[in-house]
Specification:
alpha/beta, 6 helices, 246 residues, Rossmann fold, 28% helix, two-stranded antiparallel sheet, 29% strand, 13 strands
Length: 246
């Protein structure tokens, strides 16, 4: 089974976020970048588990420029066989999906896995767009995944319980928490990653539907008022008059 895993670069959650060019560009100065956790912990690791159980290969694919190579090498250290980087600056979800779809269709992959979203944009749309462009089945927000006899069997959370779904291959699946357990690269994997193929391919024509007008930081947190445990009346008054929640 040929599996393709979408890998994206994301800022570490401890990084301080700022913007430049009139709040239209993300300021990457001093920012530590990591593999997007949903891509790494769930999509990639589950792909490796399926390969170990059933055989086949795991390839990662990333839309990005040369500064993405360190995070791609980490994915290779975790266990991916090889990697593809489409040499383009990712500017829009549809652009990313269309570039990946072109490569995935040519490579005739059986299964494409991606994280449910990136932690910087939280769009959760690339997987669905990718499946549509590939004319493939799509399962979103999967928390478990099995592949048997050319059929994807997945579970995802639903209102009040769990939902079991099936889809035929080829398929695109977006992975949510619970899909797999995080793997830490060992020294052998880190050394092997240095020589595994990382193929850089030029970007072809891509669709694009949106552009960034402006970034805006969330409002600063307000002051915290501490109320003594023996003054419940004051707490109720503040909730009613200031917080306006009662």
């Amino acid at each position: 089974m040929k599996i393709l895993v979408c890998i994206s670069k994301a800022p570490d959650t401890t990084s301080r976020i700022a913007f430049t060019e009139g709040d239209t560009q993300f300021d990457s100065n001093g920012v530590q970048f990591i593999v997007n956790p949903y891509d790494e912990w769930y999509a990639l690791v589950r792909a490796l588990e399926l390969k170990e159980a059933q055989g086949g290969s795991v390839t990662t694919i990333t839309v990005g420029e040369a500064d993405c190579d360190p995070v791609i090498r980490k994915a290779l250290a975790i266990g991916a066989d090889d990697a593809v980087r489409i040499d383009a600056n990712p500017t829009d979800a549809l652009q990313v999906a269309s570039l990946i779809a072109s490569h995935a269709s040519e490579g005739r992959y059986d299964l494409v896995l991606c994280g449910k979203e990136t932690i910087d944009h939280n769009g959760s749309v690339v997987g669905g767009m990718l499946a549509e462009l590939m004319n493939a089945s799509f399962v979103s927000l999967a928390t478990s995944l099995e592949v048997e006899g050319g059929v994807v069997k997945a579970t995802r959370e639903a209102a009040g319980g769990l939902e079991s779904v099936e889809a035929s291959l080829p398929a695109v699946v977006s992975a949510a928490k619970g899909m797999a357990e995080q793997r830490i690269p060992n020294m052998r994997g880190i050394m092997a990653a240095r020589t595994k193929p990382l193929n850089v391919v030029p970007a072809g024509d891509a669709l694009q539907a949106a552009s960034v007008a402006k970034f805006e930081l969330p409002p600063a947190k307000g002051d915290c008022k501490m109320i003594s445990a023996d003054q419940p009346e004051e707490l109720v008054r503040l909730l009613r008059e200031e917080a306006k929640v009662l």
